[in-house]
Every structure is written in structure tokens, then in C-alpha cells.
Amino acid sequence: MFENTKVIRDFILADVKYKKMREEYGFGNEKHGKRESREEVSKHLQTFARQLVKSTGMELEIRGEENLPTEGPVLYVATHKSVFDIVIIHSIIKEPVIYIGKKEVQEMPFVNKWFNALGCIYIDREDMREALKSILEGIKELKEGQSIVLFPEGTRSMTNDLKPFKEGGFKLATKTKVPVVPIALSNTHKVFEEKKRIQKTKVVVNIGEPIKTDELSKEELAILPKIVEEKVGELMEEIL
Q1: Which residues, including other chains, have CB under 8 Å from residue 223's CB and lie 6 or more apart?
Q2: Buried-state track 23-61, b at ≥16 Cβ within 10 A, e below 16
Q3: Domain span at residue 173?
Q4: What is the pLDDT of residues 180-197, one digit of tens each?
Q5: Which listed residue, of 42, 43, 171, 203, carries a Cα 20 to 30 Å from 93's Cα?
Q6: CA distance 34 to 31
């Protein structure tokens, strides 16, 4: 229960502490450029994320950190079992990133404020036309040099088993030819979702070598979702 109290405290304190920063540098502000704003917001979010990792009592092991690019644009493709996946990923990625999240994230307290400040992209998987607009927005961001994190499983699950990857998001890579960095995270569902309270958990993050889509054949690009899914599966098997 002590970890629950610390995490709740951290969220509340951070909401107050970073309020003015988000207002000044939040996405769409008229005072600072988009890149500068995202760098500032991301820097503070990384500090907050690292604090949350400590507050949960999480034992975090990172493998393959040398595979993280220092600059983009890159498409990071990661497993998704917990709201803490975003916390973990943002605590370790070396460059400012934005996320593609389902539309329901707009209603999530605290999380939605950071998503909005970063200018993250919301996707409505139930509305194909709106989903396509979101993908096109992501393609535009990548072409402008902005790296993106994608969770192709779509919804979270309570096991380390992979759910089938949804293919639509991979247009982000096939249309821009940016590298794809596969990431597997184990046991993140145990941090909170498993028992609906914070548990001290060992989490392993396994980062694979970038897949250079600009070197793939037309046939390989057509099956990119399967290639990445298999690679992420291998990364997860190495952990387990």
C-alpha cells in the first residue's frame, strides 16, 4: 500500500509542479517552436517518469540499450500490457518522442495532460476514416523528423503473450522508410493492472536492432507487420 501512496503523491505533485511548463511549452503554443516545445516537455516528462519508476519499487533491467538511436526519425514498436509501458519507455528513450494512443487516453487523468502537451496522436480504431487521418498525421510527423512510439497490439492484456499486431500503424514506416526499433517489455501488467494496486515488480525491457526499412524489398515491406511481430516475439522469448 505504501507504493500506492507514493505513486499517487507523485502524480499530484507533478501535476502542480509542471503545470506552468506545460502551459508555456505545450503543443500548439505560439511562443516556442514545435521541436523546442517537445524537447522541453519531454525532458520534464522523462524526469517524472524516472521518479515514478522508483516510486513503484520497480526493478528495471534494460537490455540492448545500445540499439536506441540518439536521434530520429524512428518508429519504436513496443508491446503493451500496462499504462506504465509509457512511463518505462519515456524513462529510457534518448530523444523526444510522441505516442499514438487510442482515443480513450483523452479521458485518462494526468496521462492526457502529458499526451496533449507533447502533441501525441489519438486514434479511433472503430472509425476507419478517423483512424486513417491519425495515420496520415503520424506520417507527416515522421517526415518532419519526429520519432513516434506505436503499440500495435492495440489493447492491453494481463499476460506476457503477444496479441496479434494490427497492421494499419505500420504504414507509418512503409510510407516514410524510417527505421523500426522493436521493443519487448515483460511483466509490466504486474506493476498495477494485475491486482489494481502497485506491486514491486521486476520488469525487463529488451530492445532489438533497428530494422532498416529503406533496405527492405517491396515484398518484405508488404509483410513488415509480420516481420516486426516475429522480432518482438523473439525479444520477449529471450526475456522469458
Answers
A1: none
A2: eebbbeeeeeeeeebbebbbebbbebbbbbbebbebebe
A3: 2-239
A4: 999 999 999 999 999 999
A5: 171
A6: 10
Tell me how far apart the alpha carbons of residues 37 and 111 are, in angstroms, rounded to a whole number: 18
> What type of residue is 55?
S
Question: What gap in Å lies between CA 5 and CA 167, rounded to an integer?
Answer: 39
Digit-coded pLDDT (tens) for 157-175: 777 788 899 999 999 999 9
Q: Between helices 34-55 and 111-118, what is the axis angle to 10°?
A: 150
* pLDDT number for residue 3: 67
Residue type, 145: G
Say which residue the cell 520519432 belongs to: 147
What is the total count of domains within the chain? 1
Closest by CA position to 113, among listed 13, 19, 6, 4: 19
Which CATH number characterizes residue 199's domain? 3.40.1130.10
